[in-house]
Amino acid sequence: MDAVSIYNNNVINPELVRFHEGTTSDPKEIGEIGISMEILTKVDLELAYTSEKLLNLENLMLYVLSWENGLEAMAVDDVSEEFVEESLKIDLLFSFLDSEVKELDGSMDSIRVDLADAHQRLSLCKHLGELFSVVERKLFDSEDSLKKSQEQVLEMKLKLAKFQMTSLAFNHNEFLSEDLQVSSKEVKPRLQKIDKVHVLRMLEKSLSRELDLEKKLRESKQDEEDLRLKLRLTEQVAFVMEEAAEVVWGRFLEAENTAVVLMGVSRDLIAQNQLVQFNLNGFNQRENGFRLKLENCIKLLNSKDASIEKLNSRITQLVADNLEVSILRESVKLLEEKVNESESNLKKANESNELFQDRVREMENMIESLKEDVYAAESRAETAEGKVAQLTDSNMELSDELGFLKGSHESNSKKMSLLEKQSRELEIQVLHAKASSEAGQEQQNMLYSAIWDMETLIDELKQKVSIAEMKAENAEEQCLMLTDANSELTKEVDFLRAEVESLETSLSKANLDKMAGTKDVSANTKLIMDAVLQLASERERITKQLHAQTEEKRILMETLQKFSKLYPKEGIQEKNSTYPSQNATLHQTKSTSDFIKEEEIQVLNDGSIHDPEPDSSITDSDPNLDDTELQESESRSKIFLVVKAIFVLIISVLAAFFINWKPDNFDDNAG
Questions:
Q1: Under 8 Å CB-to-CB from 313, ≥6 apart: which residues?
Q2: Contact call for residues 93 and 191 (beta carbons, < 8 A)
Q3: Apex CA 558: angle with CA 554 and CA 561, to 5°?
Q4: Is 186 contained in some domain?
Q5: Phi and psi at residue 237, in whole multiples of 5°?
Q6: How many Å apart are CA 413 and CA 415, to the nearest integer?
Q7: What's residue 396's pLDDT?
Q8: CB contact at 8 A, 326 and 438
Q9: 3-class SS at 602?
Q10: From the record, what ranges are coiled-coil (predicted)?
Q11: Cβ atoms of 64 and 113 closer than 8 Å
């Protein structure tokens, strides 16, 4: 049930996968995620199988241990054919358990390799978001379950080793009894116990050392796998950073070109703005001149009107005898009188309008003051009502207290009288408050009636004001009829059109200047492109140097391989590249460690038979080779980072040079 629950917990939602397949644009990343998911499901199934198998093996081991305890009891009494058969069965079961545990250990190694592959594939798909987090969580869960199963396998190995110790000690004591043929039955059990204790101690020491070495080997393998992953990740990050640097450099050049173009456009716009302001100042000056001319023309017209009036007076004097002239004079006088009367009526209407407006303002002020009084009265009424409510509540409380105190002792009669006085005073205050509230309501009604009367007066005054405004508008229309006929405005329009044409010619000149500026900008861009080509050539030269260094490294590695052929026992094999070399060394160290473990077990077995205190000499594979390879990979990555830093510094220096150089060149071209 545990294995099934682990598998069900680690299954990924297929809808999430379909959603990411629909949103992502790169099918390679989807393929990598799918492969990693398949690997993880396979790993989960294998882990479930191993956990079930471990449980079954533990049950079998418990059965074998109970069986062996029964055999030891039988061996103390007598050695018979049944005892030999049972011991052979136990040995067969022990060998079966040992082979199954070794097989499980090998499957653990394959599962570890699969997890490393899945981790490497997932490192390429970090930007997928939620799907990446789900798969990574599944990977961590499978790693945890792998560690737990490895611990169970180690415990199983330890139990098997102890079982082997007891069985070997038992067989050894049996062979000693057959060879030496000890006759005394009292000495035989003591010797068996002493030899068992001694052999058990020695084997426990050797097994503890072997387990420590296995743990160290696994830790070193895990560290080596982590280092490989880190190296691959650093290489991927370096590649991505290089691509990002190229993209940023391209964007930087584009931004620089756009900045230069925008600087030119802004300067053109500033020049055009200055020209427009200069033209506006000229237009304002000309407008002032035209206004002065208009005023002079009006003065001339007035003088001409005066001269015409003088001529008319002279004509009237000359035609004084004519009756028609007299009739005309009378009509003119009548018209002048009517005009004067109309002007006087206008003045009176304006004065009355002003008076009405003053009255309206006074009435509005009065209304506002009355509204404020109304608000104050309402607030007072509300406060009075609140006090009345409070007083009624207090009166009710006092009446309750009086009712309570009347039923109490006679000594409280004085207090009752005081409370009755207080209640009477409170009733009087309540009456006063009610009277004040009624008076406030009456004042409020009076104020409302006064406001209504004032509003009716304001409406009447507004009607009168509207009539006066109509009369004033009629008078203004008559005045505008006299000022409409002005022919000089057409002349000014013609003059302005001529000036607009001159401005258009100046704009055409400005456009020609702008074209010349764009040519200068194109020349500057050519210079920038030449500089970019030079940078590209420098980059190619640096890459060639890097290739030369890699060739030198390869030659050094070949020399190391030739040197390693002189020492085949140390586990150095031929390598084609850095990463396969690390895999070969790992495999060789693993094989040598397994071989050394088998030799150690044989030596311990021989020592337990022949020598009382054997020497446990366990040798490891030479770790200097892995250290040298790691140092070489680290030095190579450091050299690559130093070259990249030098390239970035060269780019920054050239960018600063062009940033400081382009505006001066543009200013010279603009000047």
A1: none
A2: no
A3: 135
A4: no
A5: -65, -40
A6: 5
A7: 76
A8: no
A9: helix
A10: 325-401, 458-513
A11: no
Residue 408 to residue 438: CA distance in whole angstroms: 40
Are 375 and 436 found together in one domain?
A: yes
For residue 405, what pLDDT is reported? 56
Shared domain check, 530 and 459: no
The string of pLDDT tens digits covering residues 152-204 is 888 888 777 776 665 543 444 443 344 444 434 443 444 455 566 666 667 77
Q: Is residue 317 part of a domain?
A: no
The DSSP secondary-structure symbol of 185 reads T
Contact 64, 139 (CB under 8 A): no
Distance spanning both ends of the chain, measured CA to CA: 87
Residues 237-288: pLDDT tens digits?
878 888 887 888 888 888 888 888 888 887 888 888 788 888 888 878 887 8
CA angle 153, 158, 164 (to 5 degrees): 125
Distance set, CA 214 to CA 114, 150, 620 (Å): 21, 11, 11
* Token digits of residue 467: 């009539």
The tokens describing 368, both together, are 């506002």
Six-digit token string for 576: 């084609």
Q: How many other CB atoms sit within 10 Å of the CB of residue 254?
A: 10
The contacts of residue 324 (CB under 8 Å, 6+ apart) are none
Q: Is the separation of the CB atoms in 37 and 135 below 8 Å?
A: yes
Number of helices (H), then strands (E), belonging to the chain: the values are: 11, 0
C-alpha–C-alpha distance, residues 307 and 627, integer Å = 122
Q: How far apart are CA 482 and CA 301, in angstroms?
A: 13
For residue 583, the model assigns a pLDDT of 44
Q: Are 402 and 419 in contact (CB under 8 A)?
A: yes
* Interatomic CA distance for residues 349 and 175, integer angstroms: 149
Reported for 74-80, long-range contacts at CB under 8 A and 24+ positions apart, including other chains, are 75/170, 75/174, 76/189, 79/174
Q: Do 435 and 578 fall into the same domain?
A: no
Cβ count within 10 A of residue 499: 14
- Model pTM score: 0.29
- Residues composing the chain: 671
Q: Do 257 and 120 share a structural domain?
A: no
- Quick one: three-class SS letters along 365-383? HHHHHHHHHHHHHHHHHHH
């990977």: which residue's tokens? 139
146 and 59 in one domain?
yes
The residue type of 618 is I
Block residue for tokens 């490895």: 150
* Residue 133 near residue 31 (C-beta atoms within 8 A): no
CA dihedral 562, 563, 568, 570 (to 10 degrees): -140
Residue 215 lies in a domain: no
Q: Which of the two residues, 144 and 432, has the higher pLDDT score? A: 144
Q: What is the pLDDT of residues 281-322, one digit of tens each?
A: 887 888 787 778 778 877 877 877 777 777 677 666 666 655
67, burial (CB in 10 Å: exposed 0-12, middle 13-18, buried 19+): middle
What is the spatial distance between Cα 467 and Cα 216, in angstroms, rounded to a whole number?
112
Owner of token pair 């009086």: 402
Q: Is residue 37 part of a domain?
A: yes
d(CA 130, CA 136): 10
The helix (run of H) or strand (run of E) holding residue 10 is none
Tens of pLDDT, residues 581-594:
444 443 443 444 44
352-378 tens-digit pLDDT: 767 767 776 777 777 777 777 767 767
In whole angstroms, what is the distance from residue 47 CA to residue 110 CA?
Answer: 11
The boundaries of the domain holding residue 5 are 1-181
Q: How many domains does the chain have?
A: 3
**What number of other Cβ atoms are within 10 A of residue 160's Cβ?**
19
What's the pLDDT score for residue 345?
72
Q: Given this model, what pLDDT does residue 568 score?
A: 55
